[in-house]
Specification:
homodimer, three-stranded antiparallel beta sheet
């Protein structure tokens, strides 16, 4: 018997290659290629850091008010936390206390299974179809709650309001969490449904569309009753309020609508160009409502493309998981980064095709014209 | 059946009064009365906030190296996280996977029970004695792990190295976590024992002695094996690395030893004066190795003193809990704040004594000389 017997039994995680060099193109974490709002940067620079000696304002009231104002809600409908993961874990604890399993797609944000395991929440995953689409009818069955990422990750597919409404209509007795981490990049928000459905909870993050991956800041929106349950959970867990600097920066970011929209517009334009270019090379990929694309190539295994791009100092994401192991998730970078990505992809695809043609010729399967 | 049936069943927490006014003396959260190191403040002001668009460096390596250097350890012996609560929750998950109960004192940091409940870790609390002292012999029994806060909160009592060694010697088969949140204010650290005991894990926070209550920053120290288990847990939980600004500020704070020591010296001097003055008023309180005192008065109920101080715009902490509901936990503030506290306490104690004397005279129990 040793203390070692009581250590957690998990395989050490092998992180993706993180090169020491700094002159590489990082398209593997869905980070925003543009910096945060200059007003948010100024808020950090002007933050009175002497105040850090005190705990932050309880419940981040000024930040909550700024978010509520921006989204056309009341402060009682908003909860702010130290990142979406903080918000989601508190929400899971607050609202998923049924013996029936909660439901979510088999291909979605990996957070769900981790926190169900930790909180001992029973769950079942529901397969998406072959095109990675979620069928709302699949969620018309007994459950202890539902979690849908819309747009979904890593698929990049966004659904419309009718889709969310269908799920809600079939689940008046369950809390439905809609994770809208990527919605600002062209997705459709479920906010208009909040006044009809008091069992709807929407989560958001500052990490993507507001360029705050380096800070922990996220929020949830829902009926006053759901939000109160999350606050009660937070208080019962002795959980700390939002970091003071993040609060100040978050308020400035939320209030700078002009910069926000301009940044989104740039990312979306680059994304559309990337999708067009990749399709001309033979890639298959769904339309994206996010800041990334999810692509496969019928002729070339995804991990080969992944490896080639890494040699070119371009880092994208390849998941060695069932169903999606022939896909790449590629973040939309700046135009310059995207140009280099497109050039590298084209070089590799054409080289591969040339090799295949040579091989076929040498085998006598194809004759030159 | 309604979604409401699956909401968490807890009483909404009623927070202590948080006045809207700002000109009150806040001695109820063990915050440091002095600001963070000027070098840390400069690090925040000079932080390149454009970089917030990217996720922070994995595993906070530069911060871990700075902490390791300061504590005379190797980086492999240090884990940094988003606050002590983040570090402790990951550590509990990583090292307490036994069916036997973990042990901790009945009077200690309230985090323990919360996270044992969430993680379904069996536990038993061990009563401290009437003087709130922990008896190491009480921990010489089968267990799945041990958590000791040293110095302990809210008692303010610190124990020496022999005490920790006794617990470790009786528990070679369990992980022993020593939470040293307050150790810098005169406690004795268990760091020298790390090279002898590979089952010892020490946790620390930046919130108190380094004046960073407004940010989330904490760390753990232990054998490479224990630290690796925490990293593996963090990675398996998809848990985010430390906030980028907090990393930069943390490094600057850890490296500014001179300011750190000067601040501690001031807090300790004020604390000793406060203890002397309170004892002259009849308060009973143990010696403190923390930045707060834990006091009771044999003649006046604690909640009356608590209420009186609040009327004087001085906020201290009163726990309405078994065994400690006649005690006040009072944070050591600046000298000016402490002077006002002492004056208010003296006024109230003398007024109460006067009232008691009048009452006794009127009842004929006591005759005037």
């Amino acid at each position: 018997m040793s203390w070692r017997d009581n250590l957690i039994r998990i395989e050490p995680y092998v992180a993706g290659a993180q090169p020491d060099k700094t002159d590489f193109i990082k398209l593997n974490a869905n980070e925003n290629p543009y910096p945060p709002s200059p007003k948010a940067i100024a808020a950090i620079r002007e933050f009175n850091a002497e105040n850090l000696k005190k705990y932050p304002s309880a419940n981040a009231v000024p930040l909550v008010k700024a978010i509520a104002k921006r989204e056309g809600l009341q402060p009682e409908n908003v909860f702010a936390g130290n990142g979406t993961d903080d918000v989601l874990s508190l929400a899971f604890r607050a609202v998923f206390n049924s013996k029936k399993p909660i439901l979510f797609p088999d291909i979605t944000y990996s957070f769900n299974t981790v926190w169900c395991d930790i909180l001992r929440i029973p769950y079942e995953t529901v397969p998406v179809d072959e095109g990675f689409n979620i069928n709302p009818d699949d969620y018309a069955r007994e459950n202890g709650g539902i979690v849908i990422a819309n747009p979904n990750a890593p698929t990049s597919i966004g659904e419309d309001l009718d889709f969310i409404r269908k799920i809600l209509d079939k689940n008046r007795e369950s809390v439905v969490i809609v994770d809208e981490a990527y919605v600002d990049f062209g997705g459709v928000t479920a906010i208009p449904l909040l006044k009809e459905y008091d069992n709807l909870l929407i989560t958001r993050t500052f990490s993507k569309s507001r360029s705050f991956a380096g800070m922990r800041l996220g929020w949830a929106m829902g009926s006053a009753e759901l939000i109160a349950a999350i606050y009660a959970t937070k208080d019962s867990m002795n959980s700390y309020p939002v970091d003071s600097i993040a609060q100040a920066a978050g308020i400035a970011a939320v209030e700078d609508e002009e910069y926000f929209q301009a940044t989104l517009k740039k990312v979306i334009a680059t994304r559309e160009r990337l999708i067009r270019e990749m399709r001309t090379m033979g890639f298959k990929l769904p339309d994206s409502q996010t800041n990334f694309v999810f692509a496969t190539h019928p002729e070339i295994p995804a991990h080969e493309i992944f490896g080639y791009l890494m040699e070119q100092d371009i880092y994208v994401r390849w998941f060695n998981k069932p169903r999606i192991d022939n896909y790449l998730r590629i973040t939309v970078g700046t135009d310059e980064e995207t140009n280099k990505l497109i050039d590298a992809l084209r070089d590799f695809v054409y080289e591969k095709r040339w090799q295949a043609r040579e091989h076929a010729l040498n085998s006598g399967w194809v004759t030159e014209d």
